[in-house]
Amino acid sequence: MPFPFMSNHHASEAAAGLDAWLRSCGLTEEVGVAAMIAFTRPAELASYNSPTVELDVLQIVANQIAYQFVFDDRAEEIGRRSPDRLLPMLCESIGILRDGAVPRTPLGVALADLHRQVQERCTPAQAARWAWKSREYVHGLLYESVAQAQPLPPRIGLSTSIRSLTAGIEPFYPLAEAAQPCELAPEELYHPTMQRLSRLSADAAVWIPDLFSAVKEQRAAGMINLALAHQRAHQCSLPVAVLLAIRQINSTIKEFERLYEEIKPELSPAGIGYVKGMVGWIRGCYYWARTVPRYVDTALTPALT
């Protein structure tokens, strides 16, 4: 990991604000949510990946991480039974993000309030990008459910494509932009190298926790995990597959560093800050995944042969 550990000094305030927000949305009344939040520590992850932002942005990041953890776990639980059971849940989310529809569930209430927070803190263009990337994340969960329901597991390319969507990391990049002193110019934001940096950082960030969750995913018959995809592709043991995944992650981070150095002289201060927001997710996911209780028993759980 080439990026040193950093943590936001507003972390405890964000954690308190998150608890209050989850209660106000009714999510902590849902079965298992409070325990899951204690095991995933969303505010801690937000503090690690957004170490320099002010409290207002950090709070939105923490709230959104918590929401996505709840949403993802619920989608996985429902989707394992049948992909079509996911449709009401996913359609409610798309309706809120695209049309401003009235929410019908506590998860919908949380998403609608998140959308409001983003619209109040971001520019209209940034909020629109946030909503677009959030819709991609919602669609990704349906793709994952369809893949899990198939008799044969997906090939590694398809698996990583789905993982890129279910990661839900790119919706946070408009918040990283909003933390800058000004909006990025279109020619900077949509520069091909900047777009590639976005893809590389999101992949590296989400693949890192895959290393720590691989044993649990294997035990639960999960498929959309980088290490497990390598195990299937190479018909090797899980420890060997994890090493192959680490090699792919390292290669991705090295390409990110190289491209950033190439484009950095052309970037505005806001553009540099935006890329540092991407760096934050790579670094943050690494240090969070190493210590979070969600993965604490990974080293104690034997892999299947």
UniProtKB/TrEMBL annotation:
Pfam hit, one: Terpene_syn_C_2
InterPro entries for this protein = Amorph_synthase, Isoprenoid_synthase_dom_sf
Identification of the protein by name? Sesquiterpene cyclase
